[in-house]
Structures are given as structure tokens and as C-alpha cells.
Amino acid sequence: MKKRLVGAIVLVSLVVIFVPMLLDEDPMVTSGITETNIPPRPKTGFSSHILPQEARQPLVAPQSRIEPADVVEAAPETSTRPGPKTRAALSAWVIQVASFQKRENANKLVDRLRAKKLPAFMEQASVDGKRIFRVRVGPEVDRKKAEGIRARIEKGFKLKGKIERYP
């Protein structure tokens, strides 16, 4: 009799706990998932065009003007630099406009190019043990567009540029 009474109490308590849960219509349980945090699919197609970094400031504020004796021609280099690596990834093109021995002069030219809405940047390199500062414009995925930019630089700045693979 004692075992039957304990069994009946357990069954009644289970009914008291679970029956209201089954009869109660909870909107979260019945409606399912209504929102997601996954962003919608983009409406435009994929573009591999590399965009220039607009807000980049020169490393050092320019203090002197560009002097012709300071410009190093953008001719092929004689140092032993490893050639371009063969990759399956997409590559781009840059126009090397000039090389300088002084960082200030390179920054000055970068500022002039950016004023004409060209994506110019400066790169430090070592050639034959000497530190130089290369002024480059780009990168551009399409070589024909890079050639157009080079022609624009030659016409507007009277500087002969050299198109190179990037990076």
C-alpha cells in the first residue's frame, strides 16, 4: 500500500508539471526561428579590382622640394633580386614613377600624385647596399589600365614610369 501511494504521488506530480507545458501555447515554441544574423546575399557580382587606400598619410611630412639631382631613373636594377614567384593567385600591376635617396622627396611626390587622385604610395628598398625610396602608383589588376595611368603620369608630371608586377 505504501509503494502504491508513493507511485501515485509521483504520477500526479508529473502530470501537474508536464500537462500545463503541453497545453500552454508558447509563441517561441510554435513559431520556430524567425530571424537570422546571416547577412543577405550581395546584389552585385564579384569584383577582383584592387582599390587604393585613400586615407594613407606619408610616413614623414615633406620638408624639402624635389631636386632633379636626387631623382634616380626608374631603370632596371643591377642588384641580385629574386625574380617573381609563380603563383596561381591573382596578381596586379604598379607603375614605379621614381626612386629617391631622401624620404622627404619621395613623400613630396606621393603627395603631388595623390592630389591628382592617383593611388600613390612609397616603398623602402635596398639596392647595392643603399637605401632608396620608391614612389609607385597602383596596384591595378588590368595591365591596359596601368598603361593608361603611366601615360597620364608621363603627360602630367613629365616622369617616365615603369610598369611592374605587384606584389
What does the model show?
The protein is α+β, with helices and mostly antiparallel strands. The protein has a domain at 69-74 and 90-166: Alpha-Beta Plaits (2-Layer Sandwich). Helix content is 33%, strand content 21%. It contains 4 helices and 5 strands, in the order ααββαββαβ. It has helices spanning 2-23, 27-31, 103-115, 143-157, and strands spanning 71-72, 92-100, 120-127, 130-140, 162-166. Strands 1, 2, 3, 4 and 5 form a 5-stranded antiparallel β-sheet that branches. Residues 61-69 have low confidence and may be disordered.
Features:
single chain, about 170 residues, alpha+beta, Alpha-Beta Plaits, five-stranded antiparallel β-sheet, 5 strands, about 35% helix, about 20% strand
Q: Fraction of residues in helices? A: 25-40%
Order of helices and strands: HHEEHEEHE
Would you identify the CATH H-level superfamily of the domain at 69-74 and 90-166?
Answer: Sporulation related repeat
Query: Which CATH architecture of the domain at 69-74 and 90-166?
Result: 2-Layer Sandwich
Please tally the β strands and state the result.
Answer: 5
Tell me the major beta sheet.
5 strands, antiparallel
CATH topology (level 3) name of the domain at 69-74 and 90-166: Alpha-Beta Plaits
SS field, number of helical segments: 4
Radius of gyration: 33 Å
General shape: rod-shaped
CATH class designation of the domain at 69-74 and 90-166: Alpha Beta
Which structural category fits the helices and strands? alpha+beta
- Overall mean pLDDT score? 77
Q: Alpha-carbon distance between the termini? A: 88 Å
Which regions are unreliable across 5 or more consecutive residues at pLDDT < 50?
A: 61-69
| β-strand amount | 15-25%
